[in-house]
Amino acid sequence: MRVIGTVGLPGSGKSEAAEVARGLDIPVVTMGDVIRAACRDRGLDPATHHGEVATALREENGPAAIAERSLPLVREALEDSDTVLIDGIRSDVEVEAFREAFGEDFELLSIEAPRELRADRLDLRGRDAGVEEGGESLEARDERELGFGMGEAMAMADATVENADSLAAFHDRIETLLTDGLEATEGER
């Protein structure tokens, strides 16, 4: 059994890593989907209320709330697969929740990219509302996520991948990590 979590600021490449995993038939549990579902349950648009609901869930149910809602989805995926990727860990508390649940079978991968490149990627993605549509700026999102403990979570990573090259090069690195193990990042940072 292998459970691989990804952590990184918005636009760093977590969703792309998840796509590579799916292409390898590795199930993906996306923590952001848990938040988007909570938005819809509350009658709110995920494109404009994602950050607000993420904060509310943590305030209402504790800092590990989203990890705890994701655990049953990970366990279900493990029934049919030896490896599962958790897309989008946001805090050190969430890392600890997964480490407690899966022990040494849990590995954490930090995906990092420069702010300007992340901003361009988020504009191209078009999934989130921009400031002009009532959404958050990248600076506000970074600040919110770092406030959840993302910086601490990134520091806890077992491996780090810098995602500043071509998409194809990033996909190749992620595929190597998923098939050969996180130790394949030796020499990177």
Automatic annotation (TrEMBL):
It comes from the Archaea. Keywords: Kinase, Transferase. The keyword Transferase applies. InterPro entries: P-loop_NTPase. One of its GO terms (molecular function) is kinase activity. The keyword GTP-binding does not apply. This is Dephospho-CoA kinase. It comes from Halapricum desulfuricans. The lineage of its organism: Archaea, Methanobacteriati, Methanobacteriota, Stenosarchaea group, Halobacteria. The gene is coaE.
